Amino acid sequence: MLPYSSAIGSDSGPPIPGLIGTSEAMQAVYRLTRKVAKTNASVLLLGETGTGKEMIATAIHRLSGRSSGPFVRVNCGALSESLLESELFGHVRGAFTGAVNNRTGRFEAAHTGTIFLDEINSTSLFLQVKLLRVLQEREFERVGDTTTIRVDVRVIAASNRDLYAEVEAGRFREDLYWRLNVVPIVLPPLRQRREDIPALVAHFLGYYSEKNDKHVVHIQPQAMEALQDYHWPGNVRELQNYVERAVAMAEGDELTVDLLPEAVLGRPARRAGRLRGVDLDTLIYEVVQEGLQAAGADATAMHERIVNRVERELIAQVMQACGNVQTKAAARLGINRNTLRSKLQQYQLETGSDEGKESQG
What does the alpha-carbon distance between residue 160 and residue 197 come to, in Å, rounded to a whole number? Predict the structure, then answer.
């Protein structure tokens, strides 16, 4: 998400640079952000994708006593376990095939500053043990090394899933959860702070008008009404995308209702299945009919068959739409890349590429 240029304050303290919204829900977030920023406590940011968790993490760092130190971001869902371990903790030459030089990890690079671990729920149980040690002891070893490195780092983690539900499901260590969850900050989805939409739209209009050398400075009342009535599953990031699109397509100085996508206007959007000439509703109907006609087929078997067929088709379509790049496809599907890779193998689909992991280094 692009950095906001505005600054919103409240009666309880100075403004927070880079954040937009005056709703009560966001004011509560601002107050807690200011308060926790003055400490060294670990922070756990919770909220749906696109609600601005990285923006809050950045604000906490900038308002803290560590602001002169580095702010290091790591997307834990973008890398496989082995690559993420090396990314976080570094490695020494010869630690594994391809390790031709020593490499400094992100924790070491964040010394005296802050490290932001996004999609922390994507980490394996093995890596969670190492993360717990860093949080408790402030020390670790590089991959392939025995020398202990001590660091002074503040940890901010984020998850778009209920992390305690992940604990109960056995996918996340409870001891690590409590270490991270010292101060939780829950970011509200955009549908719960609709009064902030006009200010966000105005900001994005100004930003993209300048970026595209255009002058879209007004918004049609019907268009604003449609934006405020929409349920925003993609939150602020989705709003940003639609405003950028509208500015690019606008011929005058006004964002009009015809520049908005069909989904915002309450019309059925074109289905992803059309990309390959397959409509998912038709696919579901055909599979149900097959199940009903199959001798001795029970409801459980039919349900599993439907789910597998539809999931396979959806993954295939999204991979095609993303140019067979796993990182992009996983983000669009809302799953991490390890899960996507497993699904591709399960359904015997083309695995595509892992483009994007180099940019994490």
Answer: 21
